[in-house]
Amino acid sequence: MSSDLALQLAGQLLWNALLICAPLLIATLAVSLLVSVLQVVTQVQDMSLTFIPKLLTTVIALAVFGPWMLRKLLLVSSKLIADIPAYF
User: What digits encode the pLDDT tens for the residues 69-84?
Assistant: First the structure.
């Protein structure tokens, strides 16, 4: 296996990892930003106020996007495993 192929595979895997994690990261980022603005406006600095909404958002986003994330992960994994003979 050449180093060019290894770099190409690593790039594809990192891109797919980012794509699979994106729904959770975007949802959590949006809720974090909203809670931060709310804390600045109300001047309430409670740690549970930041933790609990992010945790609930992550659970809800995982329930909503989980099947898609699993399908995408299985597709990438099965393609990678199926292409193993072509690498040698």
Answer: 999 999 999 999 998 8
Can you tell me the distance from the alpha carbon of 81 to that of 63, in angstroms, rounded to the nearest whole number?
A: 27
Question: What letter represents residue 17's amino acid?
Answer: A
Query: Structure pTM?
Result: 0.79
Residue the block writes with tokens 């699979």: 20
Select from 35, 23, 30, 36 the least CA-distant residue to 70. Answer: 23
Q: What are 38's two structure tokens?
A: 């709310």
CB contact burial 17-35 (16+ within 10 A = b; e otherwise): eeebeebbeebbeebeeeb
Residues 24, 58 contacting (CB under 8 angstroms): yes
Q: Which amino acid is at 18?
A: L
